[in-house]
Specification:
The chain has six helices and eleven strands. By secondary structure, it is α+β, with helices and mostly antiparallel strands. The strands form three sheets. Strands 1, 3, 4, 7, 8 and 9 form a six-stranded mixed beta sheet that branches. A three-stranded antiparallel beta sheet has the order 2-6-5, with no helix packed on it.
Length: 211
């Protein structure tokens, strides 16, 4: 795994990472980027395949403070099965065993899904088991099954921190004030007398005053 390490960002900026994900054989890989403000719920985003085992994901930071992010990946059994079935159909190879495996994959996904989707997946599994590919809506069924992957084979990266700074932290111009220099001739100045010059300092383009 390779990740871009980030030291800091500004509000509204995008955090983008790229990773290398691979598995033995020709199994299809699926990955997600997860991110959050520490203590809050994880937000999940699908990683985009760039080819050659490289994947990319990004999210935008909106508030100051610390964020954390990581990557999780697993073999997508549903997509792997569907790709393999299509190759066998093109080669006119017997797919009876594959259809039974597909029905089992749908049934297993149904056990992980909430009631409404579980009912649909169970119905799809029964269709494959009894009718095979006749009238089967494979793309729809296995897209749905992919929403409820088995968690036993999930590989997860460490969580990486990133800090979102105020915009002035990236670049600012500082003006050094000596308040005693702003008094009348022969007398030390006060903070109030120095403050009378703040508008002038701002017009010069300075962002920060320090004493």
């Amino acid at each position: 795994e390779q990740m871009i390490r980030l030291s800091g960002k500004l509000p509204g900026e995008e955090i983008a990472i790229e990773v290398t994900l691979f598995a033995d054989g020709h199994d299809r890989i699926r990955g997600q980027l997860h991110h959050r403000v520490p203590g809050e719920e994880w937000q999940l985003l699908e990683l985009e395949s760039l080819g050659n085992d490289r994947y990319r994901g990004s999210f935008r930071v909106d508030q100051l403070g610390r964020y954390e992010y990581g990557v999780r990946a697993w073999v997508d059994s549903a997509a792997t099965w569907l790709a393999g079935l299509r190759k066998k159909l093109e080669a006119k190879v017997d797919v009876e065993l594959d259809i039974r495996i597909g029905a089992e994959l749908l049934s297993a996904a149904a056990n992980r899904a909430p009631a409404a989707d579980a009912k649909r997946l169970d119905k799809a599994s029964a269709h494959l088991a009894s009718k095979g590919l006749d009238g089967a809506d494979l793309d729809s069924w296995f897209d749905l099954a992919g929403q409820y992957p088995a968690t036993s084979g999930v590989s997860e990266s460490a969580h990486h921190p990133v800090t979102v700074h105020p915009r002035l932290a990236r670049f600012s111009a500082w003006y050094e004030f000596f308040p005693r220099s702003f008094g009348p001739a022969g007398a030390h100045g006060t903070l109030g007398q120095a403050a009378d010059h703040l508008d002038y300092v701002a017009e010069l383009g300075f962002d920060i005053v320090y004493l």
